[in-house]
Specification:
Number of helices: 5
CATH architecture: Alpha-Beta Complex
CATH class: Alpha Beta
Number of strands: 8
Helix content: 25-40%
Length: 202
């Protein structure tokens, strides 16, 4: 799940996501560096992560909700509810995954490792989406599935979650999936990216 918001231009604020950091990939930096033969501009290993839920820039999400509810759910009411929900989410403990495939992401502009993860990770991600659904219902939204798929802030392109790690730019816009030698990946506990940007954390 990646976000795209060209209509709003340059982002104003930090994107909020629920993610798990990559702690290890294969045998180390050499294994990761070897992926550079398939992609351009490899991302720094220290920043690699897998997104479980993309919430987006809060001001944009608040605007999407206010527009969807025709002004009934105001930012002043909605923001504390969203922050409270996020900060009370249970933590998913670290786990091991593996990858043997590079796939195009974001309309082909990026490449990422498609990751096989334990069932409990799929269950946790489904719990996040279900929780988001309940939150939006409590905030007065109708047709919530349509809102989730249509909100530019949330940035969903598909209702199906593909576990992946974005690693760099695709060499061409219409890159095909690439099979690679299997690589083990260690993930840390789940966390809220840019948690410090949440009002209650300031």
């Amino acid at each position: 799940m990646t976000a795209s918001d060209p209509a709003r231009g340059k982002p104003e604020g930090l994107r909020i996501t629920v993610e798990v950091p990559v702690l290890s990939l294969g045998a180390g930096l050499a294994d990761y560096g070897g992926l550079g033969r398939y992609v351009d501009s490899l991302r720094k290993p220290s920043g690699l992560h897998m997104t479980l839920l993309h919430v987006g820039i809060l001001n944009h999400l608040l605007a999407d909700i206010e527009s969807w509810t025709k002004g009934r759910s105001t930012p002043e009411y909605v923001l504390p509810e969203i922050v409270s929900w996020l900060t009370e989410l249970p933590v998913l403990e670290g786990f091991l995954g593996k990858s043997s495939r590079l796939v195009p992401l974001g309309g082909g502009r990026l490449m990422g490792l498609e990751v096989d993860v334990p069932q409990e990770v799929h269950d946790y991600q489904a719990l996040l989406v279900q929780g988001l659904h309940v939150l939006l219902d409590d905030l007065g939204l109708d047709n919530i599935d349509d809102f989730i798929l249509g909100s530019p802030a949330l940035g969903y392109r598909s209702p199906r979650w593909l576990p992946h790690i974005a690693i760099g730019k695709a060499k061409s816009r219409h890159e095909d999936p690439i099979e690679i030698a299997p690589v083990a990946i260690g993930f840390g506990d789940s966390r809220i990216r840019n948690r410090e940007a949440l009002p209650s954390a300031q």
